[in-house]
Amino acid sequence: MATPIRSHPGNSDWQNEWLRRLDAFGPDGALSPVSYRTYLTDVDGISSMEHFGMVTRGVRFAPWRITFPVIASALMLLGGTVWAKSEEASVVILTQVPCQFLESENGVDQKFKSAKKADCETINRRTGNMRLSRAKPLTLKAGNYIFRVTNKSVPYELGFWLRSTDYDWLNPLHKLTKTSVSGGGLLTGKSGDYAVTLKPGEYVYSCPLNPTPDYRLIVTE
After folding, report:
1. Which domains does the chain have, with CATH numbers?
2. What is the C-alpha separation between 173 and 140, in angstroms, rounded?
3. Are strands 180-186 and 138-141 parallel, antiparallel or unpaired?
4. pTM score over 0.85
5. What is the phi-psi region of residue 53: left when phi exceeds 0, alpha when psi lies from -120 to 50, beta otherwise?
């Protein structure tokens, strides 16, 4: 366990006062993570696929952790007040099985078998266009979202990638002007959250590690 921050005889009175305040937050002199809870209720008009249980309304209290220099500056600016901003968000539930997202293909499990990435690449070359033609685009209103992605039965690590339709990861300007949210590390049975603010426009989402089609996402005002 780290040593708590203590007052020091060489400090001025106000420095020692900040140190005493910081010491109250935790043994390492930093704020512990704020609790995270999501309240689920019914939502009207959020998604054309809400009947598959994809979208629910929630409130997210974002976890945060700030070390001593940052907290000290914040306390000075805020007159000693510590606060955490809460953000209202909608939670989009997505479930991956081999080579597909269940909800994105109208809830139909295609029963594909895959032991490695190359298996899905072969399957998608054969069936991808047909499946996309049958899939309904996910439609959301502009706002803050958490995409909660679960690896239900894929026997290897997978991830998630949501980006603007015309996003090019090789274009440095797109990193500043376009939307792209991604991550991996989802082993079998694990879930991960991907937070994003969506503006009106068209996007696609997929999994590059468990290759899926590029499913369409339309965001309205």
Report:
1. 91-220 (2.60.40.420)
2. 26
3. unpaired
4. no
5. left
